């Protein structure tokens, strides 16, 4: 069995094609990593992506436009709960990011928010429900996702977060991905 040697033109064509495929695949991987990091910029993964991108010389923020890491940290460090956040969203008629940005900046400026941290938290939740809710948010889901799931399941905030979080802990797939619209 004899093989036909590649001509320089054929070899160059194959090399260009493989290079193009490699570049496209790398772009898709970087884009996916960026979307995941943006969905939860304070996660360990989000911080690693942000550091790596900055080290590569790319001027990219791992926080949404108009929202700084300092605002994010100020809001959560003040021990406001997810329920407090939802109440502020309703009170100010803003989305989740805008609410955390505004509240975080107010805290950084030494201003008081309309209520104390933990005002809207349900402290009597059993430990397993609290763990499920924590798993829900650690998976990158947001308050907007809670609203979407509320509508899909016809449930209230706490029940929705606990149910979704338990599904995550059990390895089940939710009907939506983090920060997305319904997929089924």
Give a written overview of the molecule.
- The protein is mainly alpha-helical.
- It has helices at 8-39, 44-55, 69-77, 82-92, 96-108, 127-138, 143-153, 157-169.
- The longest helix has 32 residues, at 8-39.
- The radius of gyration is 22 Å and the shape is extended.
- The model has no long low-confidence stretch (mean pLDDT 78).
Please describe the structure with a list of short key phrases separated by commas or semicolons.
8 helices; mainly alpha; 184 residues
In percent, how helical is the residue content? 55-70%
Structural class: mainly alpha
- The amount of beta strand, in percent, is under 5%
End-to-end CA span: 54 Å
Mean pLDDT metric: 78
Q: Based on Cα principal axes, name the global outline.
A: extended
DSSP summary: helix tally: 8
Record field, number of beta strands:
0
Helices and strands, in order, run as HHHHHHHH
What are the low-pLDDT stretches, counting only 5+ consecutive residues below 50? none
Q: Main β-sheet: number of strands, strand sense, barrel status?
A: none
Radius of gyration: 22 Å
């Amino acid at each position: 069995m004899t093989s036909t040697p590649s001509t320089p033109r054929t070899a160059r064509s194959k090399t260009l094609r493989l290079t193009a495929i490699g570049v496209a695949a790398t772009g898709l991987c970087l884009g996916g990593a960026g979307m995941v990091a943006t969905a939860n910029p304070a996660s360990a993964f989000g911080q690693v992506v942000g550091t790596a991108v900055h080290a590569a010389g790319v001027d990219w923020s791992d926080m949404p436009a108009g929202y700084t890491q300092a605002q994010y940290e100020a809001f959560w460090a003040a021990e406001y709960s997810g329920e407090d956040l939802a109440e502020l969203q309703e009170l100010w008629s803003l989305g989740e990011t805008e609410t955390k940005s505004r509240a975080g900046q107010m805290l950084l400026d030494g201003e008081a928010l309309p209520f104390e941290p933990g005002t809207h938290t349900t402290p009597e939740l059993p430990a397993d429900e609290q763990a499920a809710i924590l798993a829900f948010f650690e998976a990158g889901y947001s308050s907007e996702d809670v609203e979407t799931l509320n509508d899909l399941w016809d449930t209230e905030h706490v029940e929705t977060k606990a149910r979704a979080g338990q599904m995550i802990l059990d390895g089940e797939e939710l009907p939506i991905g983090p920060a997305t619209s319904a997929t089924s």
